[in-house]
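Technical annex, item 7. During the second reporting period the consortium partners agreed on a shared format for inverse folding records so that results from different sites could be compared directly. Each record opens with the tokenized structure and is followed by the designed sequence. A conforming record, contributed by the partner at site C, is shown below for reference.
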């Protein structure tokens, strides 16, 4: 089943590349990974996401056999993967419909808002943790 998801992702990137140009593939790929990280960070926090999935232990090349153990849990929650793919495709779709500068500004505003929401959500968790262990 995992291979079908990879095949679908490659097909979507090919269609995006032909529809919006080669740079849109890079934008879609990067926005997918950033969104996936932020969705996980909303649940776990920035540092916990980085440590839990061993992103600090991944060594290039990323497709090496020893790195697969770190990447499989990231894709374990299919809902988060679908959300990240939807955001990546929305950014490309909006860039086809609207001026690119407007899409960039809107993306940065939404990104800043979501990061502050993650900090706000983790701030209450951090305060509860401090209260329990002090």
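Designed sequence (site C submission):
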């Amino acid at each position: 089943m995992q291979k079908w998801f990879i095949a679908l992702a490659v097909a979507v990137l090919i269609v995006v590349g032909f529809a919006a140009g080669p740079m849109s593939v890079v934008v879609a790929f990067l926005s997918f990974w950033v969104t996936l990280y932020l969705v996980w960070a909303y649940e776990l926090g920035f540092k916990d996401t980085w440590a839990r999935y061993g992103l600090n232990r991944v060594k290039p090349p990323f497709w090496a056999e020893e790195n697969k153990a770190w990447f499989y849990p990231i894709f374990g929650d299919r809902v988060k993967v679908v959300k990240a793919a939807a955001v990546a495709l929305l950014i490309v779709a909006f860039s086809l419909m609207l001026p690119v500068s407007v899409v960039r500004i809107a993306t940065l505003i939404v990104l800043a808002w979501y990061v502050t929401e993650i900090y706000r959500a983790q701030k209450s968790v951090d305060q509860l943790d401090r209260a329990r262990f002090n």
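The mean pLDDT is 81. The longest helix spans residues 100-133. All partners now use this format for quarterly exchanges.
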